[in-house]
Amino acid sequence: MCGITGWVSFDADLTQQRRTLDAMTETMSCRGPDDEGTWIAPHAALGHRRLAIIDLPGGRQPMSLRTPTGEIALVYSGETYNFTELREQLAGLGHKFETDSDTEVVLHGYLEWGEALADHLNGMYAFAIWDARDEKLVMIRDRMGIKPFYYYPTRDGVLFGSEPKAILANPLARRVVDTEGLRELFTFVKTPGWAMWQGMREVEPGTIVRVDSSGTHTRTYWKLDAVPHTDDQETTVARVRELMTDIVHRQLVADVPRCVLLSGGLDSSAVTGLAAARLAERGEQLRTFSVDFFGQEENFQPDEMRGTPDSPFIRDVAKLVGSKHEDVVLDPAALSDPEVRRAVITARDIPAGLGDMDTSLYLLFKAIRGESTVALSGESADEVFGGYRWFHDETARNADTFPWLAYQTGLNQRPETVREDLWQTLSVEDYVADQYRTAVARVDHIDGASEFERRMRTVCHLHLTRFVRMLLDRKDRASMAVGLEVRVPFCDHRLVEYVYNTPWSLKSFDGREKSLLRHATKHVLPPSVVDRVKSPYPSTQDPGYAAALQQQAKEVLAERDNPVFAVMDQNWLTSAVAADPGSIDQFTRHGLDRVLDLHHWFDIYRPELQLG
After folding, report:
1. Residue 165's pLDDT is what?
2. What's the pTM?
């Protein structure tokens, strides 16, 4: 796992731009704390920061190969889980390897198959290859969008990076945010290709972007296709069990300490159980980590989203599988620490406004990094298997908008926190409606499918191409900010394709959410988790957190010309900071978090707003 960046210019001599390349590369130091490297030629410059996971001494980058007609150079971020099989296949075709790294396999794979290399890979990756034979840059991103990847076309080439901050370190990239960039913050629709900064684009998942002297060319190499599912219930459960077992086994491969993120829910517990069984075969004990808050279990109050605390279920799983478990317990002071918030904003590059759900994730990963370098996560199981409550809410799933917006009232309506004139300028309702129509139009269906099955396929497609990408980006940025690689077994494209094409009647055959996963993995789960109702990522219920936000927001309010007030409503904030902390509801707390996120984002990035 690493951070990559680079610059292609067909008119300039980039060998004179090493200082700028170094600055771009340095912004990725958190993603790659173990090593750094650059490669530079007249028309291409590549930078790399390395987090060493496989073949610690042999996987240095940028990595290059000389051919009779020109050099090929690669910067690669991610993991290729089938690199051992690909290495054997390529060796059989005459390729010679000097290291044991997956990076070298990818490089030789490109030499053998060209851009068709993408079809051979199983993993999470974002990489760029400069091919001097044709004077072209090839950028490829994994199918599900697990690893982030951005690019910024210039007059005579392109800038690229794992994160926008790498691109913004180049003087050619302007720090301008316009209405198109800003409105996405208030919509929760994850428009494909969106990047907050004007002129910047995201390399879309499952996509190849080629840049040569004639311009930029984009090709989709993978998408969710609708194919008939012919397996019966027993065979389907068995196939899911087989896939999950193989995926977890592959993703445990590393030359550094690894662990599992355990929340006590079905998803993470399934990964934990499969991983523990695999390591036990080798005489190893699995390490597991969880996040918790001081006093949360003792003082827990059920709400609309969370009916039970996580701790009892975590203990049940850890006891069953025999893992060496550690709870990372956080208090309001840590969660609301302005320096932690700044670290999160810097990691994400955007003022996301998710408050303690972002800071707690960052602090959890930071604590884990002291013990492990790789962690497996249960992220994305809800999108793959249909776990969210709105999948099972008739009104939400039949609404003429994204189901998560229909279920959580007010997400696509003007919040009191935002200036009314800005909201009108952003035209958020029209934007969401347009994005919904665009997303639905991309769904293929099986001939003869019932209207209900067509609708549920659409709902699943929306989650796998929109909703999950928001969560994957959040996970990646928070983990890589502390040099931790988090792997997501549920995003293996083989599993995604298989379950996506399973009829909804099979996905919910026992009358519950995630029926297939529940039955496929119950052999490694305690009964309490098998029977547990879906509970999302935890959030602190301590009123001390809201009180700390109020105090910090008062300082922002004292700065009448603070750029925050180009976005947020000053009168609303005045009322919010004066409220009794014990009476603050989730919407007010969310608004305070958004104000503070924006405050730090403006201070760190100094963006130029163009909202006319």
Report:
1. 98
2. 0.95
